[in-house]
Amino acid sequence: MAHAHKVFDQIPDPNVALWNAMFRGYAKNEWHREVILLFCRMKSLDVMPNCYTFPVVIKSCGKINALVEGEEINCELIKGGFRANPYVGTTLIEMYAGGGFIGAAHKVFLEMSERNVFAWTSMINAYILCRDMVSARRLFDLATERDVVLWNTVISGYIELGNMVSAQELFDEMPNRDVMSWNTMLNGYARNGNIKACERLFEEMRERNIFSWNALIGGYAHNGCFFELLGSFKRMLVEGDVLPNDATLVNVLSACARLGALELGEWVHVYAESIGNKGNVYVGNALIDMYAKCGIMENSLNVFSSMDVKDLITWNSIIYGLAMHGRGVEALNLFSQMKNAGEKPDGITFIGVLCACTHLGLVEDGLSYFQSMVDEYQIVPQIEHYGCVVDLLARAGLLDRAVNFVKEMPMEADAVIWAALLGACKIYKNIELAEVALEQLVVLEPKNPANYVMLSNVYGDLGRWKDVARLKVAMRDTGFEKVPGCSLIELNGTVVEFYSLDERHPETEEIYGALTGLTKLLRSSRYVTALMELGIGA
DNA sequence: CTAGGGTTAG
């Protein structure tokens, strides 16, 4: 644009078309303020705008919410007789709707001399924007012309309100569905938690594009179905008619992170670069997180330093990754580098920063970071932040301060906070507070037996076996069984899950045979773990 | 020279 502007400045008497070209250029680069300023300059030079001028300028007004300027332009185009132009009317409706002025938008719509399908669509979309599906639907039924975009728009409106029944009804009534109609429905079911319907629809489709696959894969991601996600990614690669894009890869990498599928993650890393995603910020961020969650912090750091373009999420991912791994010093260093690089931290950044302080035992530093988050960055602390501070104090053994902090919080403590306190009670063997914490947890999470187990472990540590037994009964009385925590391991390209004393694997005997052998070897070299002392290891 | 629709990360 700088070059374009230079050339433009050398033209002695630019005509409207040339001015319009400048507006379009700035608008395309999202420099909306410039568009409006330039438009004012054109008027001051007495060049008359034409029908091509207004839509671009109005759109820029809408984009930056410059409704005062927009209003002036509206007056001007009424005087110039441009309100009859269908392009002008449509963009005006969008501008008002974007600013939340549904009445003004509707007024423009009513005053339009001829309403084509674009005008109907933008007016209906205006109602959808303010979540008024009843009016949107009424207009849709009145519309003189309905094309596939309009149908899809109304279906999306229902989906946004979570009304899949009406969305499906309309979809069934549609005369001509295109791929986008199908994809809209796929996303609707995926986002509204009906993954089975999403799968069913996906199978029914005869034509699929990248968005169809991403809708299915994104649906799995949303609903925590990570094995299915990886399955459909592999299927996508085998069928081979659609190439994954950055959105696909991000979802796949986040599934790898959740499942600890490091080998697949590494493969995706190489593959992503081979299909031209080197330097993609989304993919880079997902890689940082995947490597961190899989425990290979060096790879995270390598990806991080190789990224020429970084954004807020890049910094947050690396800071949190380092904090998780106990590398708090580096995490805090990167936090100050982040500020030097001109990136503004948000609430998530401070989760990582506070976590880093907790693992370093830097209580006072953590508290001052918490304070600076409020004072310097005007971030309103969420319950997660209060939870971090409670954890910070509690893990440092400052249980009284932690309790006082909970009392002074502006919101009610949630289960995470009480669980943090209970966890610290186990470390510091504080039975009184542990009992208070469980009392709260039983109310907040009556169905979670893990809380009983935590208190039971505190009793166990102190040798209070009668209380352990009493709690076991209380836990059984709730009727909810503790789901055993499981681990995941990647073997020959697939992820297998297992828990302690698991016997589900077909080669169980060989596995436990090997384990017994290893334990004997360790014993013979006088290596004794805490578990072995309790007689559990072998 | 102009207007409307879908996915992704912490």
UniProtKB/TrEMBL annotation:
<dbReference type="GO" id="GO:0009451">
    <property type="term" value="P:RNA modification"/>
</dbReference>
<dbReference type="Pfam" id="PF13041">
    <property type="entry name" value="PPR_2"/>
</dbReference>
<feature type="repeat" description="PPR">
    <location>
        <begin position="311"/>
        <end position="345"/>
    </location>
</feature>
<dbReference type="Pfam" id="PF20431">
    <property type="entry name" value="E_motif"/>
</dbReference>
<keyword id="KW-0677">Repeat</keyword>
<dbReference type="InterPro" id="IPR002885">
    <property type="entry name" value="PPR_rpt"/>
</dbReference>
<dbReference type="InterPro" id="IPR046848">
    <property type="entry name" value="E_motif"/>
</dbReference>
<dbReference type="InterPro" id="IPR011990">
    <property type="entry name" value="TPR-like_helical_dom_sf"/>
</dbReference>
<dbReference type="InterPro" id="IPR046960">
    <property type="entry name" value="PPR_At4g14850-like_plant"/>
</dbReference>
<feature type="repeat" description="PPR">
    <location>
        <begin position="178"/>
        <end position="212"/>
    </location>
</feature>
<protein>
    <recommendedName>
        <fullName>Pentatricopeptide repeat-containing protein</fullName>
    </recommendedName>
</protein>
<feature type="repeat" description="PPR">
    <location>
        <begin position="147"/>
        <end position="177"/>
    </location>
</feature>
<dbReference type="Pfam" id="PF01535">
    <property type="entry name" value="PPR"/>
</dbReference>
<feature type="repeat" description="PPR">
    <location>
        <begin position="15"/>
        <end position="49"/>
    </location>
</feature>
<dbReference type="GO" id="GO:0003723">
    <property type="term" value="F:RNA binding"/>
</dbReference>
